[in-house]
Amino acid sequence: MLVLALARASQPLAAYEAFLLAGADCPRYRPSAFSVNALLAALVRADRVDLADRAFRAALRRRVSPDLFTFNIVISGFCKTGQLRKAGDVAKNISAWGVAPSVATYNTLIDGYCKRGQVGKMYHVDALLKEMIQAGISPDVVTFNVLINGYWLCREGKVEDSIKLVEEMEELGLACILSTMNSVLNGFCKKGMMVEAEGWVDGIAQRGMKPNVITYNTLVDGYRRLGKMKEAAAAKDAMAGKGISPNVKTYNCLITGFTTSRDWRSVSGLLDEMKEKGVKADVVTYNVLIGALCCKGEVRKAVKLLDEMVEVGLEPKHVAYNTIINGFCEKGDAQGAHEIRLRMEKRKKRANVVTYNVFLKYFCKMGKMDEANVVLNEMLEKGLVPNRITYEIINSGMIEKGYVPDISGYAADVSKNLTSS
Predict the structure, then answer these.
(1) To 10 degrees, the CA torsion angle through 193, 198, 202, 203?
(2) Listed residue (413, 392, 415, 416) closest to 404, CA to CA
(3) PPR repeats at which positions (predicted)?
(4) pLDDT digits over 398-407, tens only?
(5) How far apart are CA 341 and CA 272, in angstroms?
(6) Cα–Cα distances in angstroms (integers) from residue 419 to residues 369, 395, 408, in the given order
(7) From the centroid of its chain, how far is CA 420?
(8) What CA–CA distance (Å, rounded) separates 228 from 54?
(9) For 163, phi and psi rounded to 5 degrees?
(10) Do residues 386 and 418 make contact, with C-beta atoms less than 8 angstroms apart?
(11) pLDDT for 267-289, tens place per residue?
(12) pLDDT tens digits, residue range 198-246?
């Protein structure tokens, strides 16, 4: 009872310790499957799948008879952490305990493959679907939604397949949910099929569902990807006309598009609109604006935005600092770039590979090879791993100009990567 009480009280680690102690004090102690299920579920929720696995195996050794919930909890934990092989092994052993897998079992496994980048191995999903049908288990609304939302359909550009699944759902009398419809819409937009995308939005309404902010943000982003900013802005206005308030993601998408097309008047108008509607800028907003200002050569204004971020309680990320450092380097202002690096490090953000690449490129461009060599050695001494861009800079900026970097202790690794790049 103690194990059950602690698990229900959201104290999974204490429940786990109680479970172990009970078994150590009384080898014949056999908890109920109900208590074990509560413990396993609490551990999985706390992201302690490792302990859930141990508790599961310990329960089996104590001859606890697992039920379907026991197996489903363990399978969901393994899928949650991407341990799909282990999840599959547990599923294969269900029948050995006289338990039949349910549609929830298969849904969990299918969802695991879809979410964990297993899209290139569709045979896993196909095999699970065939196994379901052979076992007499009919796919339910969750199965279809998982498949449609999965990477191997819309996110892989297979919009036609996802539409067929929606139609199949409806033929079976299963209701499609809005998030699934939005996933199909995302597929259209990523393929640049905006006429079809607009038609799909109409179809959402015809099915009795109300498009939401995600629906319209997907449309806005679709037009933005194609550089059709007039249509993107119109989608935002259509959203407002439907009584749906644009959010910061809507504005970030539009601001990104208009900065790319250098339509500064529209950017300014959107910023004013955000203030008027009480939509607060986030880190992404500032990153986009800082990038735009640096591209215009207005680096000092970008620094002011960096200050503003801190003032409003937002923590600048590496991308903001590195963008400004690059902006100063592009203007030939190494001192300004160095000052931003110091500010970054004062906020406990160490220079990363991108930071060093910016300085390395600058010194190579200026012909200051000794300074470039110092930067390279400092990066290596700090244990940072050079990336492809680093090697391209070394090759084109130093070696091709007749300067061999003095990197004793790192030469073997660097030269090996240079020859393979």
Answers:
(1) 10
(2) 415
(3) 32-66, 67-101, 102-139, 140-176, 177-211, 212-246, 247-281, 282-316, 317-351, 352-386
(4) 999 999 888 7
(5) 31
(6) 21, 10, 18
(7) 30
(8) 55
(9) -65, -40
(10) no
(11) 999 999 999 999 999 999 999 99
(12) 999 999 999 999 999 999 999 999 999 999 999 999 999 999 999 999 9
The number of beta carbons lying within 10 Å of the beta carbon of residue 368 is: 14
Every domain of the chain and the residues it spans:
212-280, 288-350, 361-421
Pick from 88, 163, 162, 73: nearest CA to 121: 88
216 contact partners, CB below 8 Å, separation of at least 6: 235, 236, 238, 239, 242, 244, 246, 250
- Which tokens in the block code for residue 272? 């004013």
CA dist., res. 203 & res. 414, Å (int): 56
- Close Cβ partners of 56 (under 8 Å, ≥ 6 residues apart): 36, 40, 66, 70, 74
Tokens 């490129």: give the residue.
361
